[in-house]
Amino acid sequence: MVWAPEAPATGSSRLELLRRLDTGPRGLLESEAEARLRLHGENTLPLRRPLSWPRRLARSLRDPFTMVLLGLGLISALITSWGTAGVIIVLVAVSCALRSNGEYRADRSTAALRALVTTTATVRRRPSPDAAPREREIPADQLVPGDVVKLGPGDLVPADVRLLRASGFTVHQAALTGESAPVPKEAPDQPDGHGHGHLCWQGSGVASGTALAVVLTTGAGTLFAGAYRARRPASAFDRSVNDLSWTLVRLTLVIPPIALVLNALLRGHALEALPFAVAVAVGLTPEMLPVVVTTALARGSAQLARAGVIVKRLPALHDLGAADVLCLDKTGTLTCDRPVVDGSFAPDGRRDPEVLRWAALNAFWTLHLSDPPVPDVLDEAVLAGAPDLGDAEGVEAWPFHPVRRVSRVLVRDGGTEVMVIKGAVEAVLELCGQVPEGARETAERLAGRGLRVLAVALRHGDEPAPVLAGYVTLVDELAPNAAGALSELSRHGVATKVLTGDHPATAARVCRDLGLPVEQVVDASLLTDAELAEATERATVFARCTPEHKARVVRALREAGHTVGFLGDGVNDLPAMVAADVGVCPRDAVDITREAADIVLTHKDLAAIGLAVTAGRTSTANIVTYLRVALSSNVGNVIAMLVAGLSLPFLPMLPVQVLVQNVCFDAAQLAFAADRPDPRLVRRPYRLRPPTILRFILGFGALNAVADLSTFAVLTWAVGTSGQSAFHTGWFVENLLTQAVIMLLLRPATPVPRPLWLATGALATVAVLLPLSPAAGALGLTALPPASHLLLFAVVLAYGVTLAVVTRRIARRASDAPRLPVV
Ligand SMILES: Nc1ncnc2c1ncn2[C@@H]1O[C@H](COP(=O)(O)OP(=O)(O)OP(=O)(O)O)[C@@H](O)[C@H]1O
């Protein structure tokens, strides 16, 4: 998407703009900010505001099944089949109410946790007209037009802003303009009137540099809210549910015409059969699918919330359960991100404390001259490990840039200006005119010990190029439970790949210590795009990755058919996070990465990832059980109804009976959200596969149809075709009883949880008691003679035994597979 927004306030000078916004570089008065907040409202996107009940209900009407049901309801009303229309409306209302309620509860249960990870902004405000401005962090939703904010690497741009001052400032604005590389921004006093180089929009993230900016618009007024409707590309789960839904919708739409044509051809009364055809189509529709999906995923996410895992987007849980590859960054994820200085070396490998002093000077002035200060654990570690810094005075600083991979500081040292450069080894060596002999080997040797190696170079006065001063090494301890978590993931069928910006030798050593197979470390900086894509399958460790390399590896894996998760915490992880099927980050990740992540780990504990994977697979397995049971039964019924409709002189079941039976079955199946899946299913990546599900339901649907047709035979023999009402009742009872049976037999071979016992018990009770109840007359049901009951029970028993035998056979054939084929 390339989008060229209209730039607000383009062209006016800085002063004119500030005057127009009635503010100044010292920021707004607190009282004025409060008044503006009342006037403009909170700075939240309309998309993110909690939905009202009516809107929630309206949104739940939008899924394809509900649309189909409403269409069928309309047809029924047009042919004045009011009973059918009424039941359909009840069905739609119940499913929408359940779904809205499920979504509401899911939202509410994570809202409190989400508050823990809300985005903040550094704002400059004054308590009174004469007081000095104060800078403090406030929730980004409290910003108002005219506020003056500071931006640094990793920050989300919290509103539409114009830059007042900028240094080395680049932003990711791919979400708005589609440009994947960070875009440089500047703060000219008088912009040229055409470009947008002085504006940043809400929804972008700071890739590098620092800036001071004034807020132009907030909330619904931002260009992000007005112009950006596109979301991330559909995830694996969205695609699967969509495919499946549309296949079923197509199937549903062809059933009524087939029923009508056959009735017209064989009997010559198509229109009379219309309500029946409509009811049959309704019978095929798994209208509770959205409810079961929401409930199963919400249940999983509520359990995870107790373990400190926040699921920001429910379907992400399925995607994590489906992931067969998890890419992670190294620093801060596999290591503690509390580096400690180990040593300081000259290029030839001799110990040299002077190198550390220069590195510390760079760190000190980077921290002091950047505005806002850019917190950086490496800089803090270097400073903590350095003795005396001397009295060099900082002049200007260019903080660490994740693509250039160096930080630079200009200092005045005893009358001469020195540019102190510190950064990744190869990035610094590339800047140096000449590399001293043995310097590369020294770096290799240090990195091979698993140390993080920073190179330091100096350029005195107007020397043509920097000269390598040496290296500073740091130890970064492995995260205590990382090795265990990785082997747990591998046991659960998730391959891990480490994508790091660090040196190949450091990365290899760390990965080996963690027990990862490291036959080859790919140096991303040396490969072409095609070579990198080709290496993705075989390699485990990718070093010297820029943010774009990380994204490219993730995209190549997805193109090769993998479902990919990405776990990272830095600015350099954002493009990969967005490219993955599911993004995970720790709670202390930088704002932009946390905003892009689907799942946030509140404790820095990799073991939580394993829990989330299991919860995702459990939810998916329960959804699949629902689909198997619901659709096998529905398909069987539809086949039987079509066959019987043609061979009997009357409709095999009244439309209202088809629909009531449907409502009862649907309600009982909600219990599947709390089912216990086969533990073997949870041990490997598990995703919704529509073709396999469809094959399964056709097989078991046919078996179900055989049971139904046997019932017809029995009923015809027992009550004859003269007693229509007894015939209808017989089939109604048999149908509900077989549905109760398949709910127990087509589920995994794990102990049946209490809610499922209750649901199937209730279904069987309704089957037996409804024909005896006062509602029987209105539904066209009648009490059956005891002999018919016995016969029906015999059919149901035979069906149950056949089903048990078939499912066992399938399990035996795939001896290491679960009792039922994996779908
Ligand atoms: N503040 C800094 N000053 C100078 N050099 C740095 C600084 N931070 C990182 N580097 C260098 O740049 C390299 C790349 O950094 P980057 O942040 O992209 O990845 P990383 O932290 O090494 O690893 P990961 O990608 O696993 O998080 C680092 O390995 C280090 O050599």
From TrEMBL:
It holds the Pfam family Hydrolase. It is a multi-pass membrane protein. Its EC number is 7.2.2.14. InterPro entries: ATPase_P-typ_cation-transptr_C, ATPase_P-typ_cation-transptr_N, ATPase_P-typ_cyto_dom_N, ATPase_P-typ_P_site, ATPase_P-typ_TM_dom_sf, ATPase_P-typ_transduc_dom_A_sf, ATPase_P-type_domA, HAD-like_sf. It catalyses: ATP + H2O = ADP + phosphate + H(+); Mg(2+)(out) + ATP + H2O = Mg(2+)(in) + ADP + phosphate + H(+). SMART domains: Cation_ATPase_N (SM00831). It comes from the Bacteria. Keywords: ATP-binding, Cell inner membrane, Cell membrane, Magnesium, Membrane, Nucleotide-binding, Phosphoprotein, Translocase, Transmembrane, Transmembrane helix. Gene3D superfamilies: Calcium-transporting ATPase, cytoplasmic domain N (3.40.1110.10), Calcium-transporting ATPase, cytoplasmic transduction domain A (2.70.150.10), Calcium-transporting ATPase, transmembrane domain (1.20.1110.10), HAD superfamily/HAD-like (3.40.50.1000). Residues 177-200 are annotated as: Disordered. PROSITE patterns: ATPASE_E1_E2. It is found in: Cell inner membrane. SUPFAM superfamilies: Calcium ATPase, transduction domain A, Calcium ATPase, transmembrane domain M, HAD-like, Metal cation-transporting ATPase, ATP-binding domain N. Its main location: membrane. Coiled coil: none annotated. The chain crosses the membrane at residues 65-98, 206-228, 248-266, 693-719, 725-746, 758-781, 787-806. PANTHER family: CALCIUM-TRANSPORTING ATPASE (PTHR42861). Mediates magnesium influx to the cytosol. This is Magnesium-transporting ATPase, P-type 1. It comes from Nonomuraea purpurea.
